[in-house]
């Protein structure tokens, strides 16, 4: 049972992952570590379509290496894709989708791939890679509008996928989803949707160490895709308790 | 354990005697026993007149809910209360212990207890046990120097904050606080915000659930609002009720076996 011993060593590399006899050695798992990563992506449905938000940071471990990474991209005419996790894997996924879209366009039959199809394709890709012990280390948010129908879904790196009115990846699941669950409602206007997203982005900025204050918002309606210019949110640090926190309680801060 | 001289006082704190042996065992492949984290959402905030503490009421044992309506807001002094997350036994024991120490201190000084006293007693106890006493606390109270709110971590570090959350549901509750907290809240606004934060933990975190407990501490007055909100009522209650009168169950057959009377000889009392 050599692979049982490998399990203990593999646990040191990537805690919680279990090896089976299919993987012969621990060195098969050089692909288990992400290097340059993006943090949460948020998405929600509103009256006219879908709106996604993400910051523009690419962290290299605990260093903030890249500050202008575009993690929201349009796919074809009907979809936008947002990714968190390994940036190089995201770029690879964009190449696969490029090939897919071009192949579809070459048919020239008036039909085009919609968000449901893109979501299904990505789900298959992610699941199959995971089965070969070579996952694409991403959590993807797929949103779009086709024939008046809005669609918003998520695919994880092990192939978990679902569809909902509001989604988030990574830390967004813990910090943003509770706010979205309390405040999202059907047919929000664009301004309300942006306000809700900005509320969530601000909490993430305060409480996620890999978040930076430079965001992009992407919206897709039946008229097409718009990805905003990068912008920053206003933060508030003026609590009186922050002025002299250890007054009366030496040793705390 | 190291041998202790009969007349030397027992020093408290974590004993490092077995650490080398434990390390050797881990290297050989033995798995150390894990610690059960009881899921919780506990919060505290400072408002205009004092401090408001809040907690959910679910105690978990792994995937099972052990207690649907436990009390996580512990009494420390008439003007100081403490919410506890982590291992339930640890939080109970440590708050009980410091509460007794505070009372003795009050008798000795003849004054109302101060929050920093409770804070220092808690942090020095937890530090001396190097994080093995798994108690994460939100300590709040009002004393002569004003309202105070602190968080205490299992390793013994503390923070002084205007609003704080701890436990597995802390992220859900913190999301609510970060987006809605402002200084100078009134009593009603403060209670409303605390309830919202706890409900966020209850509905978005699997380790938290059931009801909302709130404790409002102001100068000279403390209100412990046990089960202030019950957002998880029982949805289906059988209208027929649960009484089963005689005749409800059909008797198919009856067999009566008389028990033989057994003679018990009186034995002599045990000789020591």
UniProtKB/TrEMBL annotation, chain A:
The keyword Transport does not apply. It is found in: Cytoplasm; Nucleus. GO terms for biological process: proteolysis involved in protein catabolic process. One of its GO terms (cellular component) is proteasome core complex, beta-subunit complex. Keywords: Cytoplasm, Hydrolase, Nucleus, Proteasome. Gene3D superfamilies: Glutamine Phosphoribosylpyrophosphate, subunit 1, domain 1, NAD(P)-binding Rossmann-like Domain. It holds the Pfam family Proteasome. Transmembrane segments: none annotated. SUPFAM superfamilies: N-terminal nucleophile aminohydrolases (Ntn hydrolases) (SSF56235), NAD(P)-binding Rossmann-fold domains (SSF51735). The keyword 4Fe-4S does not apply. Its main location: cytoplasm. PROSITE patterns: PROTEASOME_BETA_1, PROTEASOME_BETA_2. GO terms for molecular function: hydrolase activity. Belongs to the peptidase T1B family. Non-catalytic component of the proteasome. The 26S proteasome consists of a 20S proteasome core and two 19S regulatory subunits. The 20S proteasome core is composed of 28 subunits that are arranged in four stacked rings, resulting in a barrel-shaped structure. The two end rings are each formed by seven alpha subunits, and the two central rings are each formed by seven beta subunits. The catalytic chamber with the active sites is on the inside of the barrel. This is Proteasome subunit beta. It comes from Apostasia shenzhenica. The lineage of its organism: Eukaryota, Viridiplantae, Streptophyta, Embryophyta, Tracheophyta.
UniProtKB/TrEMBL annotation, chain B:
One of its GO terms (molecular function) is threonine-type endopeptidase activity. One of its GO terms (cellular component) is cytoplasm. Its main location: cytoplasm. One of its GO terms (biological process) is proteolysis involved in protein catabolic process. SUPFAM superfamilies: N-terminal nucleophile aminohydrolases (Ntn hydrolases). Pfam families: Proteasome (PF00227). The keyword Manganese does not apply. It comes from the Eukaryota. It catalyses: Cleavage of peptide bonds with very broad specificity. Keywords: Cytoplasm, Hydrolase, Nucleus, Protease, Proteasome, Threonine protease. The keyword Hydrolase applies. The active site is at 40 (nucleophile). Belongs to the peptidase T1B family. Component of the proteasome, a multicatalytic proteinase complex which is characterized by its ability to cleave peptides with Arg, Phe, Tyr, Leu, and Glu adjacent to the leaving group at neutral or slightly basic pH. The proteasome has an ATP-dependent proteolytic activity. The proteasome is a multicatalytic proteinase complex which is characterized by its ability to cleave peptides with Arg, Phe, Tyr, Leu, and Glu adjacent to the leaving group at neutral or slightly basic pH. The proteasome has an ATP-dependent proteolytic activity. The 26S proteasome consists of a 20S proteasome core and two 19S regulatory subunits. The 20S proteasome core is composed of 28 subunits that are arranged in four stacked rings, resulting in a barrel-shaped structure. The two end rings are each formed by seven alpha subunits, and the two central rings are each formed by seven beta subunits. The catalytic chamber with the active sites is on the inside of the barrel. This is Proteasome subunit beta. The lineage of its organism: Eukaryota, Viridiplantae, Streptophyta, Embryophyta, Tracheophyta.
């Amino acid at each position: 049972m050599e692979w049982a011993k490998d399990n203990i060593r593999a646990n040191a590399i990537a805690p919680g992952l279990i090896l089976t006899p299919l993987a012969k050695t621990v060195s098969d798992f050089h692909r288990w570590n992400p290097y340059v990563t993006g943090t949460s992506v948020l998405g929600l449905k509103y009256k006219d379509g879908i709106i996604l938000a993400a910051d523009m940071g690419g962290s290299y471990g605990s260093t903030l290496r890249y500050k202008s990474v575009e993690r929201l991209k349009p796919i074809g005419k009907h979809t936008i894709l947002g990714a968190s996790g390994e940036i190089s894997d995201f770029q690879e996924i964009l190449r696969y989708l490029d090939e897919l879209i071009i192949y579809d366009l070459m048919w020239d039959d008036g039909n085009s791939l919609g968000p449901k199809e893109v979501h299904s394709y990505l789900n298959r890709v992610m699941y199959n890679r995971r089965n070969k012990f070579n996952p694409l280390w991403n959590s993807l948010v797929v949103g779009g509008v086709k024939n008046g129908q809005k669609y918003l879904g998520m695919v994880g790196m092990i192939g978990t996928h679902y569809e909902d009115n509001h989604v988030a990846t990574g830390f967004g699941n813990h910090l943003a989803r509770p706010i979205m669950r309390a405040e999202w409602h059907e047919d929000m206007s664009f301004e309300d949707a942006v306000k809700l997203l900005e509320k969530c982005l601000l909490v993430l900025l305060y409480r996620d160490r890999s978040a930076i204050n430079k965001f992009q918002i992407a919206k897709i309606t039946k008229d097409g895709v718009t990805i905003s210019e990068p912008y920053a949110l206003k933060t508030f640090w003026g609590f009186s308790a922050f002025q002299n926190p250890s007054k009366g309680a030496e040793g705390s801060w | 354990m190291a041998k202790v001289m009969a007349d030397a006082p027992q020093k408290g704190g974590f004993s490092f005697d077995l650490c080398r042996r434990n390390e050797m065992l881990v290297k050989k492949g033995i798995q150390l026993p894990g610690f059960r984290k009881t899921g919780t959402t506990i919060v505290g905030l400072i408002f205009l007149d004092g401090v408001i503490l809040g907690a959910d009421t679910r105690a978990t044992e792994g995937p099972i809910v052990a207690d649907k309506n436990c009390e996580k807001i512990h009494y420390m002094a008439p003007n100081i209360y403490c919410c506890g997350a982590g291992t339930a036994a640890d939080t109970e024991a440590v708050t009980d212990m410091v509460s007794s120490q505070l009372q003795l201190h009050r008798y000795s000084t003849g004054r109302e207890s101060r929050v920093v006293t409770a804070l220092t007693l808690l942090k020095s106890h937890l530090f001396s046990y190097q994080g093995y006493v798994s108690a994460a606390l939100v300590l709040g109270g009002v004393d002569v120097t004003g309202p105070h709110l602190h968080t205490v971590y299992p390793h013994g570090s503390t923070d002084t904050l205007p609003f704080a959350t701890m436990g597995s549901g802390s992220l859900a509750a913190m999301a609510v606080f970060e987006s809605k907290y402002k200084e100078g809240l009134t009593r009603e606004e403060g209670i409303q915000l605390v309830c919202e934060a706890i409900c966020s933990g209850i509905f978005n975190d699997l380790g938290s659930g059931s009801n909302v407990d709130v404790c409002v501490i102001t100068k000279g007055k403390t209100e412990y609002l046990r089960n202030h909100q019950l957002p998880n009522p029982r949805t289906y209650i059988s209208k027929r009720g649960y009484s089963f009168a005689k005749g409800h169950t059909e008797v198919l057959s009856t067999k009566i076996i008389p028990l033989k009377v057994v003679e018990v000889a009186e034995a002599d009392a045990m000789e020591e």
